[in-house]
Queue: 2 jobs
Job 1
Amino acid sequence: MAGIAHIGIGMTSAGTRQRLVRRLTEKGISDPRVLEAIADVPRHRFVDEAISSRAYEDSALPIGRGQTISQPYVVALMTEAILSEGRPAKVLEIGTGSGYQAAVLARVADKVFTTERIGELLRTARQRFHELGLHNIYTRHADGLGGWPSQAPFDAVVVTAGGRIPEALYEQLADGGVLVGPEEHSGGQQLIRVVRTGDDFQRENLGAVSFVPLLEGLE
Ligand code: SAH
């Protein structure tokens, strides 16, 4: 019976996800790989059942412990920002949270390495990856400010909490790699995109965003 109920939810959500995809297209997301990933990943499985009916609104939602699942548009924008012609082999994400951004990244990259400082959130996210059969996501309960040195270099680094982006994350970018994340400024957060070419780091500003803070240490 549980299985049948799940199929029902899945079918409804496929339609609602298509509406979300159309909305993101209108907002300027165009990479088919990103739109397909958004269409495929069941966002309602990454939030509490009590608010799952709001999962396909284009807004951030609470996931407990004062944290949020990012707005789908921002997830799509960041995913698009790290993609070029090739498929990235290794992506590092800082801030697993609900696991949704990691699940989207797992559709467009070979391997996703994601770190989360709050153990309770990470356990729930791991359970979701397991249930959804997302076997190319590797998780670590760690302070992501130091990156993931043993797996570096990365073709892309995605920071999903706002603050001062630490030097270690730039150092762990491969040549030609891309970092995207919210940087704290006096007037608020700005989403930045940085492309590494040798020792040169080319910066671009993608606009104002609002993320939970990047914090030190474990919980
Ligand atoms: N990518 C997530 C967004 C979650 S919000 C999603 O799709 O749901 C950002 C997350 O970053 C929070 O869960 C927060 O606990 C985590 N975070 C903040 N600072 C961190 C740090 N230094 N290292 C690892 N995770 C961190």
Job 2
Amino acid sequence: MCDTKKVGILGVGMYLPEKRLTNKDLEKIVDTTDEWITTRTGIKERRIAREDEATSDMATMAAKRALEDAKLTPADIDLIIVATITPDMFFPATACIVQDKLGARQVPAFDVSVACSGFIYGLAIAKQFIASGTYKHALVIAAEKLSTITDWSDRNTCVLFGDGAGAAVLGPVEKGGILSVHLGANGKQGELIKLPAGGSRIPASKKSVEDKLHFIKMNGSELFKHAVKIMADAALEATKSLGLKAEDIKLVIPHQANLRILNAVAKRMGLTEDKIYLNIEKYGNMSAASSAVAFVEAIKGGRIKRGDKVLLDAFGGGLTWGAIVLEW
Ligand code: ACO
């Protein structure tokens, strides 16, 4: 497609549930230690949503804050995308529920299900609609309530995940904005992380519940190996297409799956660790919401200034991956 308009971020917002679950708390639930979790993952605590707080509630809070930041109202929005693997329900799409909660117009609203790469896929899709002149303003929200698909008796996974939401309003800009997008997927490795039941392959049944098939199943060590290569390669593709070198990037804002993965990615890219934005210590892995929340924090915390080039980089279940270079 021939882009006709530059597309940038007009505002951002995030929402994190109040409840903190620390590694010490987890020591009381499964056979683990704060020391193991900290050294193997970098995580110290994660946020857990209230029972009555669904993904759409967190998404709506983040969206309201992003709209306020952009000085726009729900009436200005022409497209709503929610990236999530923990929708309120199979259908209607969480994006439709958010549209209603926001009081937005009857604009297109749909979900994107590519796990941790969701925020980047969402930004990439919205960018196309705005660049082509089809829509002016899009809301891209990444929201997850992973605590509902976590097996709290499985120490291999339950220490990793958390809940939260981040959002961005996109629109036309005079200069800068999203400069390059690189997306990919490899369905052959889909078995490495999945939620097996509840769909048409294994519909919900007494047995599927007893067998705990409604929880995340993950081959952590295999994923680890793929993650480092995938994230580094995606980042290099997105920068190379612009003729940029790693040192031209002010800050890399990655999906926060594991501190050791991020340190290995930095090394592979020839970057010092201070160029990688990290918040995994506070929130764990929030799937699609991880890179969104990190992006919002980096902006609000002054880590990015106008004119800086920033790289968003993620990988996730599917397997999927995505990298975006943007000028803030
Ligand atoms: N506490 C204590 N011991 C544990 C825990 C725990 N919470 N979890 C696992 N162990 C044990 C294992 O049982 C194993 O023991 P054994 O040697 O007696 O069998 C030992 O620790 C080592 O296990 P490994 O799985 O080899 O540990 P590893 O160093 O690979 O770390 C981890 C595991 C943290 C899961 C790591 O592999 C990882 O982060 N992988 C990537 C995961 C990832 O990116 N997932 C998300 C991608 S997609 C998405 O985000 C939706």
